[in-house]
Amino acid sequence: MPESRRAAGAGDTFGGGINRRRRAVAVIAFAVMLIGGLALAASCGSGSGGDTGQRTPDAARPSPSPTRPWDRHPASIAAVGDSITQGFDACSLLADCARASWVTGTDSEVESLAGRLIKDAPSKNSWNHAVSGSLMADLPAQMERAAQHDPELVTVLAGANDACMPTPAQMTPTEDFRADFRTALHTLKKARPKAHVYVLSVPDIKRLWSQGRGDPWGEKVWGLGICQSMLRDPKSMTQASQDRRQEVHERVVAYNAVLKEECARMLRCRYDGGAVFDYRFTKAELSRWDWFHPSKVGQRKLADLAYRGITARHESHSG
Questions:
Q1: How far apart are CA 43 and CA 23, in angstroms?
Q2: DSSP class per residue in 215-241
Q3: Who's near 81: CB < 8 A, 6+ residues apart?
Q4: Class assignment of domain 77-311?
């Protein structure tokens, strides 16, 4: 304490000194009570000391996720995507076979999604706008055409061609893939805000390579230019070949993450939870013409997977 303040304090009366001490004690006692109260409040709020019975204010609670509306039994379906949805190589070599499509096909061996879901004239209430060779960049235009039918459900199976380029360097960048898919969803939502969308994951094309790489006929067809980023030199096990295939595989995984994330942003969109990517297609389920695209049996399996996902009461959160 400075000398001048000590001198001023020495001239106080005895009673004044007592009053000051009492005030000081009272202040200290109040401070102790205040600190103790704050400590008690902190321990109650932290939850580390067990259930105290104190309820978290409503404003601090996370709001529950809104219920996502979903029509489990649509009366009309439109399909967008690529060669898989057009039944490519399901009936003959290097040709579309729309009647074998897993979505809109009429072949009884396939038992398409439209046939299972639509009770009233499925062939008249389903439309296939998939185009063989399509990339994700082509999906917005397909969505626009699909929206013209005012479908209750639109199925999406696209992305394999974005990975199936001549070289991995030519694969569609993931962010471009995201932008194109987002645009496609917005295109449909703007035109038909009440339409539902079911998105299937991109198949595991590395697994398809492993299934067909030992077949001489399949290797010859692959040599015509099918998915060269993955299928070129199918028997080669050099480090460069393995690294190339792994790069393509990782891009497919990234594409599926995009499909899941962007679908989750749209209220009436449901992702298959990775069901198609995870499914191990057998040789019987692959085209005998190229050991890569689904056969009629494989198309039927796609219809099975989609039907289960669409009619499920709750959306899958795997994948």
A1: 30
A2: -HHHHHHHTTTTTHHHHSSTT--SHHH
A3: 130, 134, 139, 142, 155, 156, 157, 158
A4: alpha beta
Query: Environment class of residue 86 by beta-carbon count within 10 Å: exposed (0-12), middle (13-18) or buried (19+)?
Result: buried
Give 60's DSSP letter. G
3-state secondary structure of 258: helix
Output the pTM of the full model: 0.78
Provide the angle, in degrees to the nearest 10, between the axes of the packed helices 139-147 and 174-191.
Answer: 10
The 10s digit of each residue's pLDDT in 151-200 is 999 999 999 999 999 999 999 999 999 999 999 999 999 999 999 999 99
User: 316: which 2 tokens?
Assistant: 């899958």
Cross-strand pairs, 271: 199
Q: How far apart are CA 31 and CA 257, in angstroms?
A: 55
Domain ranges in the chain? 77-311
Q: Which residues of 175-188 are buried (b: 16+ CB within 10 A; e: fewer)?
A: eebbebbbebbebb
- For the chain, which residues score pLDDT lower than 70? 1-67, 316-319
- Look up residue 41 and give its two tokens: 């409040």
